[in-house]
Amino acid sequence: LAYSYGDDAADGGELMSETISGLLDGIPVNGFVALDFDGIATMNEIAGGVSVTAICDVSRADINEGETVKLTDEQAVYYVTERDSHSADIGTNASRMERQKQYIYAWLDIFMDKLRGDPLYALEAYDMSRQYVTTDMTKMQMVYLAVSMKNPDISDEMYSLPGSYSRSGYYDEYLVDKGKLSDMLIEIFYKKM
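Given the sequence above, the corresponding structure tokens read:
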């Protein structure tokens, strides 16, 4: 939400970084990359299409739960963005976030395979997507990060903040459990000596 209060995408990114750092008890955010929803199709194109086994129905993409499909660029947009905001159910965003994580993992597998075959592919991918990306990192920093992740195993490094959804009025709100968050931060960022 902090991102949307920026005067432009770069300002929104800075606000987002400050807000996240504050939420994480002052742990610094050393860089951010924000992808505009309009860039999802291009990211799918960069990977040559991403295959997923649908974890729920996404009617606008004509995808049914349990179906394995190689997403077209248009389907990828719907798969990672759609949710039923008119639903009486609380927390429909959680389902969308699970699809986003699933897509990111599958996309990274494909992208990293391409990088192992041609490290310069990172430059091509950057050039294809840069009109949809806002970041405070330089092109060379982004390429360095991509190339240095030769064998990324981020499956256990993407976390959801502990908490619960509630609704007062029309909008859902996610309430972070500060105690559990502090425990999680200690487990992730600190080593017992």
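The chain has seven helices and six strands. Try to locate this feature in the token string yourself.
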